[in-house]
Specification:
Strand content: 5-15%
Shape: globular
CATH class: Alpha Beta
Number of helices: 16
Number of domains: 1
CATH superfamily: Aldolase class I
CATH architecture: Alpha-Beta Barrel
Mean pLDDT: 94
Bound molecules: flavin mononucleotide
Number of strands: 14
Helix content: 40-55%
Order of helices and strands: HHHEEEEHHEHEHEHEHHHEHEHEHEHEHE
Distance between the termini: 42 Å
Low-confidence stretches: 226-230
Radius of gyration: 20 Å
CATH topology: TIM Barrel
Length: about 400
């Protein structure tokens, strides 16, 4: 590809390109929120209402946005968040995003609900320069979860991300209206939708059908894969309403590497996570895809940092659409930021090149905003740079 920008200049471009390429039902599954989508809109609106105070005349000619996370240097302060079904955005989409993350020197989090086997991702996108994390949800039958975790450990994943904000199935009516169920059933509506997107049909769906067969959740244990029948698209069979802090303690015993609890919005829960032995929390409202009345995570960030910032690593996500947003979080004390939709939109738009482009957009913007604030490194940012709404 001669144009390294792919004609995509910001995350809105990425989203628009993904929208064009994907069948509508799939795009909505990947892009939309929960209930009335208030939380999803708020994530961005609140972010935009936070202002940054620049300082001037400080010589910003040499800049470095690198950080050290869990003792490991990385080139920019972001991590690819887990997004289930990324393999439906592009053939082997998880591998494409993981390779893009490796090229940018940042961690990639593989979602349990991915279309690609975790062992294949480790083989195709692991090795020198990579940092692979594995996200999972607990099954009601704990034994099944623990088996998957053992596989991730065996495959060399460096961190385990336990997502705790979805004990029951979220309300996403659009998936039902669009017929996004598993197994995928062709209705008149979604057949027309798919036929209207021949590049996706040929490049993703038919390619799977001709190689590995109908896409499925390859990391689910065999027992649960067979039980997914016509339920709303998602990890249908493993919502686990009885997860508690005991599960975190148990995971601490089972998992020898970094343990991260994702989906925290309350400082007291962050303290609990630290007390249970977690190495990090991700302050997140799941990109506005679970509780619709949840606050924007950036608002919870300062309290969580004050409560546990000296004991454990604090990561934040949801609504980070610009490099300036990442800078806001870093100034408020976050150790890093996770990106969900942007890399996903990037891969849907143009595969690995699109995911690379998504990360490059953040990299360029972070670099620019750092300079405009009069800083050369992220550790020069303080809360004094930020004006909360
Ligand atoms: C299509 C999609 C699938 C997701 N799947 C998962 C998942 O399987 N596990 C998880 O912990 N979070 C999942 N998330 C949430 C992301 O990890 C992340 O918290 C969120 O996308 C961040 O918000 P942003 O999209 O505004 O960046 C998903 C998000 C999207 C958009």
């Amino acid at each position: 590809m001669s144009d390294p920008t792919l004609g995509l200049y910001d995350t809105t471009d990425l989203r628009n390109a993904a929208k064009q390429r994907l069948p509508r039902g799939l795009f909505e599954f990947m892009d939309r929120g929960h209930d009335d989508e208030v939380a999803m809109r708020d994530n961005v609106a609140v972010m935009q209402s936070i202002k940054l105070h620049p300082r001037v005349l400080t010589d910003v000619s040499v800049r470095d946005q690198g950080i050290t996370l869990f003792g490991k240097a990385q080139q920019m302060p972001v991590i690819v968040a887990p997004t289930g079904s990324a393999g439906l955005a592009w053939h082997d989409g998880e591998i494409a995003i993981a390779r893009a993350a490796r090229a940018h020197g940042i961690p990639f989090t593989l979602a349990l609900g991915s279309m690609t086997k975790l062992e294949r991702v480790a083989e195709a996108a692991g090795g020198p320069g990579s940092s692979l994390w594995f996200q999972f949800y607990m099954w009601p039958q704990r034994k099944l979860s623990h088996q998957v975790i053992a596989r991730a450990r065996e495959a060399g994943f460096e961190a385990l991300v336990f997502t705790v904000d979805t004990p029951v199935a979220p309300g996403r009516e659009y998936n039902l209206k669009n017929g996004m169920t598993i197994p995928f059933k062709f209705t008149a509506r979604n057949t027309l939708d798919v036929l209207a997107h021949p590049r996706w049909l040929a490049g993703v769906w038919l390619r799977y059908m001709l190689t590995t067969g109908t896409p499925r959740y390859q990391n689910f244990p065999q027992e649960t894969q067979t039980k997914i029948t016509a339920l709303p698209m998602g990890r249908s069979s493993n919502f686990c309403a009885d997860i508690t802090w005991d599960d975190v303690r148990e995971l601490r015993r089972l998992w020898p590497h970094k343990l991260i609890v994702k989906g925290i919005l309350h400082a007291q829960d962050a303290v609990m996570a630290a007390d249970c032995g977690a190495d990090a929390v991700v302050i997140s409202n799941h990109g506005g895809r679970v509780l619709d009345a949840a606050p924007a995570p950036i608002l919870a960030l300062p309290k969580v940092v004050d409560a546990v910032g000296k004991r454990i690593t604090v990561i934040v996500d949801s609504g980070f659409r610009r490099g300036a947003d990442v800078i806001k979080a870093m100034a408020l004390g976050a150790n890093a930021v996770m990106l969900g939709r942007a890399p996903l939109h990037g891969v849907a738009a143009a595969g690995e090149a699109g995911a690379l482009r998504a990360l490059q957009i953040y990299r360029d913007e972070i670099d620019r905003v750092l300079a405009l604030l009069g800083c050369t490194r992220l550790d020069q940012l303080t809360r004094a740079h930020v004006a909360m709404p």
